[in-house]
Every structure is written in C-alpha cells, then in structure tokens.
Design brief:
Four copies of one chain form a homotetramer.
Chain A (H helix, E strand, L loop, with lengths): L18 E6 L13 H22 L5 E12 L8 E11 L3 E10 L5 E13 L4 E2 L4 H8 L5
Antiparallel strand pairs in A: 1-3, 2-5, 3-4, 4-5, 5-6
Chain lengths: ~150, ~150, ~150, ~150
C-alpha cells in the first residue's frame, strides 16, 4: 500500500533519508505485550523532525513562526524490543504553499531493519496572526536541503 | 481529504461511533507548545480500541489470539488544552480476512468539537503459530456489533 | 517508615486531603508487568498539584513566579490495574521561606484503597531574577487554605 | 538533606556508581516549562535498574521471581534541557531480607553535572506464591557485585 503520492519513493529504503537522529529504547516504552507501544513511534518521528526544525526555530525566534501537525500516517512493519536503539531518518517529501510533508523511517540501529515508516504533514503557523502562513525563505531553504529527489 | 475508502463516512461526525470511552487530560500530556502532544492522541485512540477489545481478550484468553497494529492514520483538527477531558469514539469500518480497520474520533467532552479523527488497521495474530490468522467467530461477532453501516 | 516530620500525619488517610482531582488509567500507562508503571504515579500527583496551582499561576501571570520541584518521595502500597480511575488527594504539609511541601495520596476510585502516598517539595522561583523567592501573599493564602492541621 | 542512612555516601558523586547506562532526551520528554518533566526522571532511573536486572530475570525466568518498587526518593538538582543525553549511574546501597535499595544518579553526558539523585526500594516477589521472598543466591550475588563499599 502506497502512502505517498510520489509512487517511486520507498519509505522503507534508508537511502532516501537526508537527516538522522538516534534514540535509545527505554523500559517504560514497553506495553503489556512486551514491545514498544505504538505511541512511542510518534515520539520517535517527532524527535527526527525536531532535530531538524528546533535549531531553525531557535535561530529565527523573532519571526514568530511555528509548525503544527495536521496529519500523521505510520506503517508498522516489525515490533521493537528492549533493549536497543533506533536510527530515525527524516526527509522532506513535498513543500506546499503553507505546508510541508516529512517522510520518516525508524530503523534498528544494530540490524538496519525498517520497523516503521510514515509521513507527517505540518502547517506553518504565524504565532502573531494565529493563522497558517507560507514558510519564510530561511525555513524553505532548510527544508529543501533535506528534500528527496 | 478522505482517509477512508468508504467516501460517505465522515470521521468527524459523532453519530458514526458505536462505542465510547472517556479520558482526562493530564498536565504531563502537554508539550512545550502548551497543548497536548500529538503522541497522546495515539494513546487516546488505543484506549478506545482497548475498551472494546480487552474484555474480548480476557474472556477468550484460551484462544491465544492477539491483535497487532499495522497502520495508523490521524488527522489533527484542533489542539487540545489542559485542563479538560475527551470522549473517544470507536467503530469498525471494515473487517478483512485477517484484519480489522477501526474509525476513531476524539471529541472535547464539554464542547463536542472533534479534535482529531483517524483510522487504525490491526491484524489478528495467532500467539502460538506466530502468524496472522482470521479472527475467531466470537471476535468477528463483537466487531460486527460496532461496525458502521 | 515515616516520610513526614509531622509524625501524626498518616498520608494514607483520605481525610487529610483538602483538594481532589480524578484521572482515568490508560492502557498505555501499563508496563510489561501489566500494571501501571511507577512513573505514572509522578504524573498523577503532579496532576493533583497542578489542579491547585495552575489557576493561581494563570490569574497571577504578571508576578512572573513559578515553582520547581526539588524533591519527591513516593511510597507504593498496592499496584494499579487497568481499567480504572484514581482519586488524587493533595494537601499542603508545610510552607517554608521559599518552599512548600505537598502531601499526596492516590486512591482507587471504586475501592477507596490507597495505592500510593508521598510528598513533593517545591521551591518558588522568580522567572525574572532566575532565583528562588518567597511566595507572594496570594500564593501563600491559597496554599494555607489547603494546609493540614 | 541526607536521603540515605549511609551518611557518608554522596549520591551526587559519580564515583559511587557501579553500573552505567545512557539515554537520549526526547522532545516529548519536555513539558510546558520547556524542560524534562519530573516523571521522566523515574523512567531514567528505572532504565538504570532494568539494565542490571533484566538479564538476571531473563536468565532465571524459571525461578518465577520479580521485583516490585515500594518506595522512591528523588532529589532534583538541576533541570534537563533538550537536546542532550544522560548517563544514569546505579549501585546497590543495601540488601535486606527480602528487599534491595538502589542508589541512582542522573548526569549530563556532556557536562558530567548531576541533575538528580535518589534511591529506589524494591522487594523481591515470588510470582507463584504471590508474596515477598528472599532473593535467590544468583540475584544476591549479582546485586552484591554492584554494592557500594
């Protein structure tokens, strides 16, 4: 099942990801089934996005711009077990007028196996006007630098 | 944007939900933006599913059947603020050979506003054979009882 | 073992608590042992404190005062199971020059059983001066109103 | 304020810790104050304990022994900020008839600063008899190997 309108993009393929961050699995990530609870995957891909966006927001705080998530899609391929660590890949799939779509992949650090992949749709938000807004050029440039294709 | 292949189903419409559970928002659900973090929405819709499935699993533990999530889709319509509570609506959209698709809606308890809606795809899993399996009749009957349309 | 220097205060006694809030247990609160993970108890007692403090902070935002936690003590008496709900009792044990000590009790909503009790030590913090500070009178008055004894 | 009855043990001193594990800070660990929420500290010290205990439990599953936490004490010395990572130190302070007390320290990986320190009291639990039990020799030996002094 495709979850992208770029049909030639395979979200389980490590080579499509432009930015990487790593996180360890905690005992408290586990649920009664003994594997990492599905909500933690949202936390992992958020961590991947934030590693990209946080420095931008810090350096450009005067622009009063933030992003809000409007849609997330996650495909779960293989459960995550404790102990272990994950490498989280992040790329930009598309940039719209006021939006950006990220591709995300969660890979076992030791194995390289893709445990989950997905997309996150965010909208740029003007904190003063309280409405969506096109991304300032400094944001757009940074996002294009990690765009696929 | 439709996230269902039943195009006539509006996931933001309270009346499509057959089962309900309620949860309170905790201070620790908030992130630095001061609203409920997006990962908590996954926890809320899981809580809705579990309220339905847990009794079934408990009563039929001898069948050694569980479910695993294979896909989640969430549309975020309006941020959630503290303090407050949510009503979580759950229905079954489709039952496949070894799978089931749930519809989920998260509504403000006071306001009735739909803050998020989505779908969760689960697969029935035989804990002994370690592979996917058609749902036993008792599960299928329970799921059909909360199916839309 | 006493965890208070008011030796006549029994933290497991519902009648000592002056303020109450209620929270539901979520499936995702459970850990591989099938009961609520110990970190969630910290979230529950924080929720109890916040229900008291948050309105104060909102109404007095111009004072630029916050609190930081400097010590927590929690005694776990009985595990919490899903599904269920808890009543969280909060009182003030002591007010110091720049600090306040809260007493906390977590009780099963259905049973009234005390599942955990403890203390949280907080310090008032001047957000402008970036240092601890005596609580303004409006805070002190509100805390004295829920003080034990 | 001492939180140990071994008054000569300084829980903020890295050199007292016998076992170490490391974890990354996640954006979702942050609360509205922009720092790591206090409940996450419980998750960190649990991760330290679990790194020690989990292999023991796995290798000795046939003994049907587990541990339950009965008391936690945490002193918060300095807030944790994102991004970053922590080194979590764990030692055994005391072994009782059916209990064990762990010492915990949470240190900034880059800075070596002690952000929090504390103790966790656990009881050994016989999963068949459903009551507390003295630790089997294999557990006691492993705990003594990381005991202070």
């Amino acid at each position: 099942m495709s979850n992208s309108d770029k049909p030639d993009v395979d979200l389980q393929d490590r080579s499509i990801y432009r930015a990487w961050t790593s996180h360890t699995i905690r005992y408290n990530d586990l649920d009664p089934l003994g594997h990492v609870n599905n909500a933690v995957y949202s936390t992992f891909v958020e961590a991947g996005r934030t590693a990209l966006l946080q420095p931008l927001f810090m350096e450009n705080a005067s622009l009063k711009i933030d992003t809000v998530i409007v849609r997330s899609v996650m495909d779960f391929h293989k459960e995550l077990r404790y102990p272990g660590a994950v490498d989280i890949g992040t790329s930009v799939l598309r940039i719209g007028k006021t939006s950006v779509v990220f591709a995300n992949g969660i890979f076992g650090r030791e194995t390289g196996v893709c445990h989950a992949s997905g997309e996150a749709y965010l909208v740029f938000f003007d904190l003063v006007e309280r409405k969506s807004t096109p991304p300032p050029k400094v944001f757009r440039d940074a996002l294009e630098a990690v765009m696929i294709g």
